[in-house]
Amino acid sequence: MSMGNRIEIAIEGSDVAMTAYRADPVDTPKGAIIVIQEIFGVNAGIREKAEHWASLGYLAIAPDLFWRMQPGVELDPDVPDQLQEAFGFYQKFDLDAALRDVEATIRTARADVASVGVVGYCLGGLIAYLAAARTDADASVGYYGGGIDTKLNEAHAIAKPLLLHFAGADHFIETPARDAIGAVLDGHEKVTIFDYPGVDHGFATTSGARRDDAAAKAADARTEAFFAEHLG
To answer: Would you say 62 and 127 are in contact if contact means Cβ atoms under 8 Å apart?
Structure first.
């Protein structure tokens, strides 16, 4: 497996390109995985996830979705000042523009592969859900996506498989929001939802205080099986 490298992705209507972290497998990729960041930018954890997908034979691309505000953001959620800085970026984040950036990343990936999946965490979990509704991604996976309950009016547009992971003790996605999501999506033929009791938001991060190893491994195994089934 190669170490990843920075690439530039042209964005329609912008004179400035968006950067992304790209990790290539050793052999011909069997598909691509677009890795969508949390509110902490394309940090070491997100790059590690991209490298993991490359080790499994996929082309992996992690776009810098904060580039419109500040390119190259890398924050550590375990450092209080950096956590607050991340919330500041979240407050200014343009979700619709980010979905267009994800579309551009999918197009870039399709230059090399036929099938493309999207996986996102936290903010990226919401974006993965919306990618299933708004883009031509072949399969999408969202981890603890906050705000999905505010976008359920888009669920009718989901035409490709979508897998969602939720933390049972998520202090950002409380029970009423989770109940609303279930009421709409539990019966959707393209959507599969797993809950992980007793764990909190961010449980599948690669390292740090938020990680729950057992839940992370269970969710990641399901994600890997999901993409193995639907990409290729």
So the answer is: no
Q: Count of CB atoms within 10 A of residue 202's CB?
A: 23
Whether this model's pTM surpasses 0.85: yes
Q: Does residue 201 have an active-site annotation?
A: yes
Catalytic residue among 24, 138, 149, 170: 170
pLDDT, averaged per 10 consecutive residues of the chain (232 residues), comes to 83 95 96 98 97 97 98 97 98 97 98 97 98 98 98 98 98 96 97 98 96 98 98 82
Strand ranges, E, within the chain: 5-9, 18-23, 32-36, 59-63, 116-121, 139-143, 162-167, 191-196
Give the Cα separation of 34 and 213 in Å (integer).
23
Domain ranges of the chain: 5-230
- Concerning whether 230 is annotated as a catalytic residue, the answer is no
Q: Which helix (H) or strand (E) holds 126?
A: helix 123-134
**202: helix, coil or strand?**
coil
Q: What is the fold of 5-230?
A: Rossmann fold (3.40.50)
List the catalytic residue out of 52, 165, 201, 230. Answer: 201
Q: How far is CA 125 from the centre of its chain?
A: 5
